[in-house]
Amino acid sequence: MKFAGKVVIITGADSGIGQATAEAMAAEGADVAITFHTDEAGAKETARRVEAAGRRAFVTQTDVGDAVSVEALFEGTRTALGVPDYLVANAGKAMSGMPVAQMEEAKLELILRTDLVGPLLCARSFVQARKAAGGGGRLLIIGSVAGHLPTPNSAPYGMAKAGVNSLVRSLSVEVAPDRINVNAIAPGLIATPMTQERLDDPAKRAESMENIPWRRSGEAKEIAGLAVFMLSDAADYVTGQTWIMDGGLTMNWGGA
Questions:
Q1: How many CB atoms lie within 10 A of CB 106?
Q2: Does 157 qualify as catalytic in the annotation?
Q3: Residue-number span of the structural domain to which 140 is assigned
Q4: Are 220 and 191 in contact (CB under 8 A)?
Q5: Domain count for the chain
Q6: Measuring CA to CA, which residue among 243, 255, 13 is closest to residue 122?
């Protein structure tokens, strides 16, 4: 088992990519700290799956955009499971239908604090924990192809995801002496509760598929599989990178 005896924190692990990654990491031997914002039932289901794999689970409500809440997450994890070896900063919030000229400040603040400041706060606490433990460890942020593509009517979301890519590059250099890997995954259209409305609408689904050369949405377990690789020793020589997994969407965008 790749992660026997190891501890991973996965934010936003109550559904979708976070839940699939928690299940995949547990299958490879990791104990998992699971955070949720509002979906406690989903988080408990994730914990059930982790425990069914024979691993320990710790569930806690966390606001990743709040420093005190993030610190409580790490302290709770240390108490329940031990010092985290890995962090998957997955929690995020989508937005659409809001041109810059009509931007609501409250919405802007929510998106940037959740999707950009959140990963930064989690990264800070993780790096502090790993330095105190003598170094080592792997940090993975789940970003989006929105960090590489234009995002009309959701500019703050694209800004946040582009900022994640920059954070990964900068932080990877800072913590290389401590042998902490820092990378990101940028998924395209993945079938999760966040995207279900679009996939259930025939017209919206057809429009999305037209832009994806692979002509299908991705599955959460596919992103989880890449996450497992990125957290494993097999990816030790990879740091500072954002891996796009999108069925070719970014390759086709300019001609779509």
A1: 8
A2: yes
A3: 7-244
A4: yes
A5: 1
A6: 13
